[in-house]
Amino acid sequence: MELSSEKFEGKNIIDMIRSGELRVDQSIEDPNLGTREIFWDSITEARSLITELEDNEAEEAAEVGREPFVTISTYVINLLVIFEEAAEKGQLETVDHFLDAYEKILEINDECTNSVIDDWVIKRVRRLGEKVKSRCGPLLGARAFPEEQQE
Fold it and tell me: What span, in angstroms and rounded, lies between the C-alpha atoms of 97 and 36?
């Protein structure tokens, strides 16, 4: 089945999923490619927020009669608040948990997951600069601080 771009023109894909107009292919075992588990296993400090996101999504999905699905973008965007706060407060153990999770997600080496990290995480890591630069893994460091890789 080929999808027409006209169907999606001017529409927000997240809103389309929420409304039930666009459905997640439930035949795919894990459309998020394991990223939820990476966040859950790596960032214990974020588990209550992850649970809250999933509970809210389950409620919304039930209202419109679709399967619940929290996207990688939703996890990343919402979890960034905890990451940035920890970095600003100097909570290095929490910062390391996030950086480890982001590194593991980049190891998946998928266009979608890489794009989410590039769009949402990299600029924040750059903005934190010296606070986190030496703590980044090789993949995250190369994306966030490419000039450092040339030395």
Answer: 14
Q: What is the dihedral angle through the alpha carbons of 143, 107, 76, 131, rounded to the nearest 10 degrees?
A: -50
pTM over the 0.85 mark: no
DSSP 100-121: HHHHHHHHH--HHHHHHIIIII
State how far the Cα of 124 lies from the Cα of 122, in Å rounded to an integer: 5
For residue range 107-129, list pLDDT tens digits in order: 999 998 999 999 999 999 999 99
Give the pLDDT of residue 120: 95
51: tokens are 């649970």
* Calpha distance 137→133 (Å, rounded): 9
